[in-house]
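Structure tokens please, single chain.
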Amino acid sequence: MKRAERRVLVVDDEPDIRELLELTLVKMGLGVDSAGSIAEAKERLRATKYQLCLTDMRLSDGEGLELVRHIAGMAGDLPVAVITAYGSAENAVAALKAGAFDYVSKPVGLEQLRTLVRSALSLPERNATTPSGQRLLGESAPIREVREMIAKLARTQAPVYVTGESGSGKELAARLIHLGGARRDHQFVPVNCGAIPESLMESELFGYRKGAFTGANQDRDGFFQAAHGGTLFLDEIAELPLYMQVLLLRAIQEKRVRKVGATQEDPVDVRVISATHQNLAALVETGRFRRDLYYRLNVIELKMPSLRECREDVKIIAETMLERLARQSGVNPSRLSEQALHDLEGYDFPGNVRELENILERAVALSSDEQINPDDLRLHPLIEKDEAGEGEHMQPHPVGKALEGPIDSPLPAYLDRVEREAILVALAKTRFNRTAAAKLLGVTFRTLRYRMQRLGINEPEQDGH
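Here you go.
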């Protein structure tokens, strides 16, 4: 059976531009209808079902934004892309905020236009399932709202700024946006900006040419090139130095990057999603983060709730994690006693889901049977008010007790246990920000990551928040 022809509606009040766009789309095997005004476009939309609408921002009877909002209010899933004036970043951002799928700047580059059209036409059906293992667990109201927002964001190319405490699932949210959208068949490239030495930042992000600096023995692509066609997730974006913020802003606006040592820029087709646990708006006010970059990154904000806001989800998240830990170790899954579950549901989780996983991993290792009891969880409050209620102080932690007591195991195992506890304390104290925890422990980020891997303090897999 022959597939129905896919149709595109082109809206522009300049006949020459309409003709150019029509010819390009027809050569792509698409059916094309044209409209010279917003009113005519609305008539076309009422009469015909389209798979894409491409509209200029300035029309004879109004702004293209009016048409974007009109289409966004329709019941269907029609993606709409806008054509903006060259250098008009404000119009592009406004269109994306209004619900546009993407934008292209004048003069229209035909290859960039073809890329946009192919992406829009490859959007999956709404509510399509993502690959197994990639899910956001829970049925609390905050989690349901986040899932709905992720489904909407997956159907645009707008930059997304993910906020939330450390360990609340910001990378998972970014990955789900990628998997639910038109870029799902291309790479999702996560980058921790706080883990890259400042001297290597530009070459790591944009790549370099052979001979650009000592040790550059061959051309090398950067993270932007690796994510071409897909999504680049910039975690801990607040850690970017100011000079790199300038380069990142240009890369996002122009959709082009220049390798270190190169004389020309190369086009890149990348969707940028950024995240940080810090207050980026506050950093803008203090001059530590560029205001123009902030507005380009924060086109749409997605706030991940803390585990404290989703206490009713602790049970399903914990049970799912225990099942996975059992599969990894090849044993029967442990179960939480009623009191242990009660204690978890009442705990504040400064490190959120990442902390919950580490607690459960430790509890499984310490438990003497298949049932996890409250003592196995070792939920010691890290900070409490003093008796007068006026100040805060650190509570004694088991690592201190271990150091005071006798060595009850071979020295290497004993030292590993002490080091593991020290790392867990630092992670919890810093709300599971590994960069901050490394500073607290007096080691580099890479050293901390190595030691976490050696001691089995794993990063959470994608089955929690």
